[in-house]
Amino acid sequence: xxxxxxxxxxxxxxxxxxxxxxxxxxxxxxxxxxxxxxxxxxxxxxxxxxxxxxxxxxxxxxxxxxxxxxxxxxxxxxxxxxxxxxxxxxxxxxxxxxxxxxxxxxxxxxxxxxxxxxxxxxxxxxxxxxxxxxxxxxxxxxxxxxxxxxxxxxxxxxxxxxxxxxxxxxxxxxxxxxxxxxxxxxxxxxxxxxxxxxxxxxxxxxxxxxxxxxxxxxxxxxxxxxxxxxxxxxxxxxxxxxxxxxxxxxxxxxxxxxxxxxxxxxxxxxxxxxxxxxxxxxxxxxxxxxxxxxxxxxxxxxxxxxxxxxxxxxxxxxx
Length: 319
Fold this sequence. Notes:
This protein is an alpha/beta fold. About 45% of the residues lie in helices and about 15% in strands.
């Protein structure tokens, strides 16, 4: 391991906001590695042995085997359940109020000490094994991202990714296959009410945890798919990587290679050319009652992020 901080781009935001396609697109940049949702690595990779983005079970993936060999001497040399317990003891949403005070942060750091040390070793090994300058972590959870910022060896830069809450809620309402797990045929679903409340809570938490204009970048998913070049340039500038080449093969197209993401949306398995387009399906197919529930509960942040309360149906286009 070297003495240079490991640079991490942490994608924070509510689920179903486009973090997978954004992160995997960034992973096509030379020196960038899209790791998926590393907050789930102990459970999904080590305990449940779910599929890596490359299609192999995580314990058979040569990249992750090498990472754990370097970090801990092997996949069975670290107590995954203990790591999960320690993570849950200080990096959950309920811990966010304590993260907002100096005393609370010190208390949480003491409680999670072994977990934070293990995380440093994990991220440093990812950097070493993959030869990457930037690790893209799409875990999204505000508390986990803030906890990673407590690790001295990590240089965490935060990308606050936002999507219209009605689009996100519509996605959570739909039944989606979950191909990376033998125990669950379909991904977890959320009601419109639950989606709205969580969208509010997570975005408000991100605003509270990263308050200054210089410690995070706010990006709407809709702006990303409308102008990917500008969005990528803003992200690279925040990372101090403005000289890196953009991952675009056309004005609206990226070409995805095989990834080694440990967890995330099923589209993490997609490869080949992907055209980035707006998805307006929710404006036509979402039940009015569900749409009204989400709109009413998210109104204050809707205005802050530039979304209109009243939305007319638009022609659907999937990206």
